[in-house]
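Following up on my earlier thread - several people asked me to post the actual chain instead of describing it. Fair enough. Here it is, all 225 residues.
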Amino acid sequence: MKLVLFDIDGTLLISRGIGREAKRPAMLECFGRTGDLDNHVFGGKTDWRIVAELLAPYGISSADVGRAMPAYETVMARHMRAIRGRYQAEAIPDALELVGALRMRDSTVVGLVTGNTSKTAAIKLEMAGFDPNWFPIGAFGNESAERDDLARLALQRARDLAGCAIKGGDVVVIGDTPDDVQAARAIDAIAIAVCTGYVTRDQLVAADPDFLLADLSAFLDLVPL
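Reply from S.P.:
Thanks for posting it. Predicted structure:
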């Protein structure tokens, strides 16, 4: 059994800022403040971690944010649905085709490791033409502040679904940031970095992925599955 875990933003799709704008009213509703939301760097981080970093100057801890995550996830999804008509998410070139090809393989399970919450991940995927049901395995940014934990969680869920052991060497993690590479290392998986997101190629080179791809077009030709 092979497990292929995708990041979402910058890897499968470009959502053009809807996540940041949905956070603004959601954070105000749940926490009464947003912090320096406009200037905060999101790349590679979980929603839990982003909110915790923004609210830390106000004495709100990561644990406090974690306790609020179930409500926050629901509120943010409501606000995202309310503004989705103003945004046009787009699939990264070749992403839909790659996911479709992997799903046709009997021995391959396709899943997600994303900093998005589970509800907002589904909204973004639908906006870009993906069916969330194509990804039977997932670990999401409302479940831990740390992406490494999400990779471990996704692997355990895949093992439970398959009913068999899946070793790290049978797992591929695909993402567009050094944090995605580190998450792959946390479970001894093959780390694939793609230059379709918002970090520079030099930053990805420094993260030392197993494969560094310009985009997803050559994935099946270059990555052993």
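The beta strands are 2-6, 13-14, 90-91, 108-113, 137-139, 171-175, 190-194, 211-213. That should answer part of your original question.
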